[in-house]
């Protein structure tokens, strides 16, 4: 079993670093739209890293499965990663995969609800 708490902590460290880089490192190198993409990506990375931290605890307590964690992790990589990439110069059509990440994150939260309701029945 993967250590989802550790993975969440790594995500949080990356979110802090990328947030600081967005606030100080690239601010003068990108336009307002690109900076907004960076901020959105950082916000979602933070929120979902914190969520993944909670999910890691719930997995250890057997309230949910690793499916929840995988959906959240892959979703945030695709969602935030595509926005970070576009900010750094990837073609704008690259943003077409951003919603796939969003759908995976939504699926992760829905799976958490389903699995915790199931756990409550036992």
UniProtKB/TrEMBL annotation:
A Pfam short name: DUF423
Keyword terms of this UniProt record: Membrane, Transmembrane, Transmembrane helix
Membrane topology value: Multi-pass membrane protein
Signal peptide: none
Positions of transmembrane segments: 38-58, 70-90, 96-114
InterPro entries assigned to the protein according to its UniProt record, in alphabetical order: DUF423 (IPR006696)
Main subcellular location of this protein, as a coarse class: membrane
Subcellular location: Membrane
Keyword Transmembrane: yes
PANTHER family assigned: TRANSMEMBRANE PROTEIN 256
Family that this chain belongs to: Belongs to the UPF0382 family.
Protein name: DUF423 domain-containing protein
């Amino acid at each position: 079993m993967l250590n989802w708490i550790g993975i969440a902590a790594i995500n949080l460290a990356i979110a802090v670093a990328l947030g600081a880089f967005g606030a100080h490192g690239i601010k003068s190198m990108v336009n307002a739209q690109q900076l907004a993409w960076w901020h959105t990506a950082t916000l979602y990375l933070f929120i979902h890293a914190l969520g993944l931290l909670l999910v890691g605890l719930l997995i250890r307590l057997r309230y949910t499965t690793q499916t929840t964690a995988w959906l959240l992790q892959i979703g945030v990589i695709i969602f935030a990663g595509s926005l970070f990439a576009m900010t750094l110069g990837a073609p704008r059509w690259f943003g077409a995969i951003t919603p796939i990440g969003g759908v995976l994150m939504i699926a992760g939260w829905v799976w958490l609800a389903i699995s915790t309701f199931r756990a409550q029945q036992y």
